Amino acid sequence: MKILMEAINYDKFKWQISGDLKVIALLLGLQQGFTKYCCFICDWDSRARSLHYSRKDEPATKSLEPGIMNVENQPLVEPSKILLPSMHLKLGLMKNVVKGMNQEEAAFTYL
Questions:
Q1: How far is 61 from 67, CA to CA, in rounded Å?
Q2: How far apart are alpha carbons 57 and 71 in whole angstroms?
Q3: What b-and-e string marks burial along 70-86, b requiring 16 or more CB atoms within 10 Å of the CB?
Q4: What is the secondary structure of 77-109 as a DSSP string?
Q5: Which of 9, 20, 82, 88 has the most CB within a 10 Å radius?
Q6: Which pLDDT belongs to residue 3?
Q7: Bridge partner list, 71
Q8: Contact 98, 111 (CB under 8 A)
Q9: How far apart are CA 50 and CA 89, in angstroms?
């Protein structure tokens, strides 16, 4: 990925980047695969099942320093240059809305 970024002269142009969440994680130096801290925006613990759907706020990620919180490599882009993929977010939000619905109500059967 570093060679690709050098080939397109990313350092010169500093474009905004949007892509799949795995590509974004790769560009930011995050560990690939099932990780405990998979978000580059906040310090959300994906394995804390008791806090899913109940916790309303998460602390913001302070730095992407290798060796801390599933960061393996130095980031190739600044996190402020990342545009989140809207389709992935919409699909994920809808999946979570349906999961959180009461399955006995009419709204669930309508879906």
A1: 14
A2: 22
A3: bbeeebbbeeeebeebe
A4: S-GGGEEP-HHHHHHHHHHHHHHHS-TTSHHHH
A5: 82
A6: 92
A7: 30
A8: yes
A9: 22
- Rounded Cα distance, 55 and 52, in Å: 6
Length of the chain, please? 111
User: What is the pLDDT averaged over residues 16-24?
Assistant: 85
pLDDT digits (tens, 9 = 90+) for 54-88: 777 777 777 788 888 888 889 899 988 988 878 77
User: At 61, which amino acid appears?
Assistant: T
Res 11 pLDDT > 80: yes
Query: Could you state, in order of their start, the residue ranges of all structural domains in the chain?
Result: 2-84
Predicted structure pTM score:
0.64
Interatomic CA distance for residues 88 and 43, integer angstroms: 20
Shortest CA distance to 29 belongs to which of 66, 79, 84? 66
